[in-house]
Amino acid sequence: MERSQLVWIVLLLACLLLSACTGNEQETLKDANHHESADRGKEIKTKEPEASHKEITLSAIGDMLIHSRVYEDARTDDGFNFMPMLEKVKPYLNDSTIAFANQETMIGGEALGLSSYPAFNSPFAVGDALKKAGVDVVSIANNHTLDRGEKAIMNATNHWEKIDMMYTGAYKSEADRNKLRVYETDEGISVAFLAYTYGTNGIPVPNGKGHLVNLIDKKVMSKRIEKAKQQADAVVLSLHYGPQYERMPSAGQKDLVQFAANEGVDVVLGHHPHVLQPIDWVEGNNGHQTLVAYSLGNFLSGQDEFYRRIGGIFKFSIEKTMENGESTVKVKEPKFMPTFVKFENRANFQVAPMHQLTDDELENAKGHYQDINQHMSRWMPELEFIEE
């Protein structure tokens, strides 16, 4: 073979070999690109963040109506001690994130002169006992708010502040009233508390001092509720309303609760009838569900008629869900524990869980307890009763 032919053959083989290597490199690069693309796909398909759920519990009690026979029973050598009266129910208030009470008598203090019906004034020690029992918020808007005038209100609000108790419904000044009461919890759920009363037993509110007591006025309440909805996750409204001693809510009570539901209030706590009225869900505008206890009755008082000795602890949960940057709040799991005010010869007053009573303490105790349960759940058959 000639030398020139040999050279051409060598060159041809070299070209074929180079072409094969280049193809392999391109195939290898393609495979690499494919794997890189697949890896990027895995990164893009990240897991969506799960919704977060937070929850708190709230307890509410009815009227703290401190007659002279009650505060005299609490008198000690160096003052007053109401804690023995609340010892049996303290565990059921202490186990809640927030506990609320309707303090119907002003705690104006002994120096102002203690007094009973019809113009009440109670010792500071009532507030101290509520604090020790686990109460965090009190409503002081009721028909007895002005019983002993502005001085009693100032004394009371000063003491509430001294013991770090949130109060609502009556205030020291207009500036104080303008501070919306919002309870911030460690769980990150905030609750606004509003309180209003139908009147003050004919005692006129002093001119220019409307801050001394919140009177029911739908226009005023609507604006305040809207502000509360903007500043808090949930809104609880305390209403002092309705005929006394009636075990079923009146048309006026129902109308006011419907108004609250339409305005977007989450929970309504009713007071003033001094007897228990049923618990219910009320549907407002846009399907909003409002939980209502039409009346929580007397929690501690000197009234001796049977149904006026029965109150209770109303419990429910508030759940907050965060998802995609938006929050939703739901009131759920309402529960109730009836209570009974025990006493002997108008002394030894004590609030006791009704399910714990014996026939020695109350004749036919179990039958009365079952009747109260049926009464409170007549519109809410699923209502749970606390017996632990």
UniProtKB/TrEMBL annotation:
Region (Disordered), start-end ranges: 31-52
Signal sequence segment: none
Pfam family, one: PGA_cap
Top-level taxonomic group: Bacteria
All copies of domain Capsule synthesis protein CapA, residue ranges: 57-303
InterPro entries tied to this protein: Capsule_synth_CapA (IPR019079), CW_Biosynth-Accessory (IPR052169), Metallo-depent_PP-like (IPR029052)
PANTHER family found in the cross-reference section: CAPSULE BIOSYNTHESIS PROTEIN CAPA, POLYGLUTAMINE SYNTHESIS ACCESSORY PROTEIN RV0574C-RELATED
Family as reported in the entry's similarity comment: Belongs to the CapA family.
Protein name, per record: Capsular biosynthesis protein
